[in-house]
Amino acid sequence: MFSRVVWMRMSWKVGCCGLVLLVIGVMAQKLPTRDEGLFQMQIRDNSQFHDSSVMPDGAEVSGYLFRDTPKRYYFVVEEDNTPLLVTVTPCDAPLEWRLTLQELPEDRSGEGSGEPEPLEEQKQQITVNEGTELFTYKGNDVESFISTSSPSGLYQLEIISTEKDSNFKIYSTTTPESDQPYPELPYDPRVDVTTLGRTTVTLAWKPTPTGSLMGQPIHYCVVINKEHNFKSLCAAEAKMNLDDAFMVVPKPGLDFSPFDFAHFGFVPSENDFNKDRSLYTNRALSNKISRGYIPKPKVADIQKICIGNKNIFTVTDLKPDTQYYFDVFAMNTGTNMSTAYVGTFARTKEEPKQKTLELKDGKVTDVFIKRKGSKFLRFAPVSSHQRVTLFVHACLDAVQVQVRRDGKLVLSQNVEGVRQFQLRGKPKAKYLIRLRGSRKGASTLKVLASTRAGGKQPFPALPEDTRIKAFDKLRTCSSVTVAWLGTQERNKYCIYKREVSESYSEEHRRREQNQCAGPESRRKSEKVLCKYFFSANLQKAVTTEIITGLETGKSYLLDVYVVGHSGHSVKYQSKLVKTRKYC
C-alpha cells in the first residue's frame, strides 16, 4: 500500500524540496499503517497537499506547470503484489508524463534495524539511477497506468508541458477496486443528438452505472462551445477561465509584482506591498510588455450547464446555421471527480430563405411581417436615375428599415407612421430593403419606391402631431367638439364615430390602432362628414368640428382619415370621448 502517513509526520513548514528529501530519508524505516479517520480529514484540506511532491493515496491533486519546467511526484509502495492505479488529467495543454520505479534496497525492508544512509547519498543514488520505466504518455487525453500487482519501491511521476503553462490533475490509489472515485461510463458512452432545430438542439445519453446501479450521488454537466470537444471537465473549465488559469511568466530578470504573487497563492503583507509600490509603479509598463494575458472568451462562446441527474437536455438560444460542439460530464458529487462521455457536434438548421418581393416604380406594395420577423424587398429601376424616393407607412408599431444600394448600407431608421426618404441614385443600381418587425406583435406596412421627380405624392402629408383634441367644457349630452391639425397641402379629411362599451379603455384603443385601414373599411352609418382643409400658415392649420346626434352618457371612438391625391389614406390617432350623463 501507499505510504499514506509519511507526510503526516513531516512539518509542513518545510519547503517542497525539503519535503522530497524527507520522504526519501524515511525509506529505511518500516512505514506504519495509516489512521484512516485522520487521513480522510486531512485530504479534505487542500492546503495540506498544496504544491507538495508527495502523492496521497486515494485523493485527487491539482497542480500547475510552467512551460518546459518538469514537476516530479513521489510515493512509496511498501509491499510487493500491490494493485496500483495512476491517472493524469491534462487541462487544456497536452502533457508528457513518465512513471518510473526505484526499487528499495534489501537492507531497508526490515523492521527498522540499521542506520539509514545520509540524505545526500540517497538523493545521489536516485539521481544516478533513473529507475525502471513503467509507463510513458504524451497527449491531452485522460490516461491511466494500472497494474494488478506492483512491486514495492519508490515510484516517481514526472510531468512536463512543452506547449504552454497548464493546469493538471493527478490521482493515485492502491485500492482501485474499492475506491472508484470516477463515475463509470455506460457500455455506449456516446452523446446523441435526438432533435435538431434552428436555435435548439436536444441531447441524450445513457446514464452512468455509478448512479443507477451503485447508488452514488451523480449529476451531469453539459458544455457547449463552437471550437472543439473537450476530453475532461477541467479542460473546459480552464477554457472558461483563461484570464485566471493561464498567465505568461515574466521574462528572466524581471521581478514579480505583488499582483503576481497573489495570483499564485502568495498574499504579500501590507508592509511589503507599500515597500514595493514604487518599484511596481516604475516597472508597470515593462511588466505589461513582458507579461501577456490570453483574452478571456466571450460568455456566449462556451457555456457549462449542470442539470442534475437528467440524461436528456435541450440546449436553447443557439444561432441558426452554426456548428456547435457538445460534451457531457458525469460528476460524482461525493468526490467532486468527473468522467467525460464521448462528445458530439451538430450544425443548427438554416433560417428559411426569405422570399424577396419586387417593388415596381411608383406602385404601392402592402407588406405583412410576423412578430420579430423580417421581409426583404428589391427595387431595380429600369432607367438611370439621380435619386430614389422611398415612402414607408408603418400601420401599427414602429419598424426598422434598412436599405442597401449595391450591397452598401445607405439607410437605417426606425419608422413610425409615414416617413419619406430621399436616396442618392446611381446608374443601374439595385436596392435591397430589409423591414424588421416589432417585438410586440405583427406589423403591416405600405411601401412605395419611385424614381420620378416632382408630381403629386401618393401619401398625404401629415402634421407632426396626429392626435385628436376633445374639448371637455364643450361636451353636451348629445354632442362633442373636437379639433385636429392639418398641413399646407390641401387634403380631404373624413371623420367617423363608433359607439363602444363602458369597459372600452385606452389599451383597447391602442391595440386597434391601424393607420393603414382606410375609410373603405368603415360602415356607412359610422361616417360623420368629409371636408377639404389646408392653411398656408402652419400655425393656423387647425380645424374644429362639432359631432352631433350622440346619445346621453355614451362612449364613442372617433377617427379622422386624411386622404391623399392617389386615394391612399392615413388615420390619425383614435380618440375616446363620452357625452355627459346629466345636462
Automatic annotation (TrEMBL):
| Keyword vocabulary terms for this entry | Glycoprotein, Neurogenesis, Repeat, Secreted, Signal
Please list which residues make up the signal peptide.
Answer: 1-28
Q: Could you give one GO CC term from the UniProt record?
A: extracellular region
Q: Where in the cell is it found?
A: Secreted
Q: Which GO terms describe its biological process?
A: extracellular matrix organization; nervous system development
Pfam family of the protein (one)? NDNF_N
In Swiss-Prot or TrEMBL terms, this protein is called Protein NDNF
